Amino acid sequence: MYELILFVSRFLPGIKLNPWVRKALIYCVDDWAEFRTRIVMAEIDRDIEDMHRAWDEEQKQNMFTYSEGPSDGSKAQELLGGPMQLSFKWSEKPRESDLDF
After folding, report:
1. CA atoms within 13 A on the CB side of 76
2. Contacts of 3 by beta carbon, 8 Å cutoff, 6+ apart
3. Residues whose CB is less than 8 angstroms from the CB of residue 89 and which lie 6 or more positions away in sequence, other chains included
4. pTM to 2 decimals?
5. 68, burial (CB in 10 Å: exposed 0-12, middle 13-18, buried 19+)
């Protein structure tokens, strides 16, 4: 009802001067605030889920790969293991944040 009164008041600005409309606005403002809060929070939740999906997808594409080579037979490499290597696949496409100056 609150939003309906606000919508009508765009076309008939004098309607807010009516005492019954004023009382309706005062009475409905708490319910309207809760309603709008729920809508905004649902939108934020959807945006957060989209961001998490995008981050998970980006993380899958940009994972480090770990590999360990065979030891060369020396005493140190027998105790510690062979040479270790981390590799990372670099992305070829630039991110939008990199393009902003």
Report:
1. 1
2. 32
3. 61, 62, 63, 65
4. 0.48
5. exposed
Residues 48-97: tens digit of each pLDDT: 999 999 988 877 776 777 777 777 878 877 778 777 777 776 666 656 66
- Which band of pLDDT confidence, cut at 50, 70 and 90, is reported for residue 101? very low
Those residues whose C-beta lies under 8 Å from the C-beta of residue 8, and which sit 6 or more positions away, are 15
DSSP 88: E
Distance separating alpha carbons of residues 71 and 81, to the nearest angstrom: 6
| Number of domains composing the chain | 1
Query: Residue 56 sits in which domain range?
Result: 2-88
54, part of any domain:
yes
Q: For 18, phi and psi rounded to 5 degrees?
A: -65, 130
CA–CA distances in Å: residue 67 to residues 70, 71, 72: 10, 13, 15
